[in-house]
Amino acid sequence: MRIKRPPILPKSKKILEELGTNLRLARLRRRLTAAQVAERAHLSRMTIYSVEKGSAKVAVGAYIQVLFVLGLEQDLAAVARDDVLGRKLQDAGLLTGRRAPRRERGDAD
Is residue 54 within 8 Å of residue 16, measured between CB atoms? Predict the structure, then answer.
């Protein structure tokens, strides 16, 4: 049975590809081989190559492992730290704090 994956938006794909390129450059600057990064991250070399291509099929955990191996985990911690839009919405009182209504069991996606 195939896993149904949601479609990835072109902008998201571009961001992943840029991340992959940046990770590859970071690895090369550190003079590490893909095999060394794979061993340290407990991933296969093929997964490292997929990460460096920015594949959306790779689990986010693999990207995180590579960031840690390269010493770039502090960049990950900064991803959603400064949520300007969220703070503005919160300050404006637009966030109600209510959950979305439950769907009926018979509803299909």
Answer: yes
Is the pTM higher than 0.85? The answer reads no
CA 32 to chain centre: 22
DSSP secondary structure of 36-105? HHHHHHT--HHHHHHHHHT-TTS-HHHHHHHHHHTT-HHHHHTTTS--HHHHHHHHHT----PPPPPPPT
The full set of domain ranges for the chain reads 10-92
CATH class assigned to 10-92: mainly alpha
Q: What is the pLDDT of residues 12-66, one digit of tens each?
A: 999 999 999 999 999 999 999 999 999 999 999 999 999 999 999 999 999 999 9
- The phi and psi torsions of 7 (rounded to 5 degrees) equal -65, 145
pLDDT recorded at residue 25: 98
| 58 closest CA partner among 10, 20, 109, 22 | 20
How many whole angstroms separate alpha carbon 26 and alpha carbon 63? 13
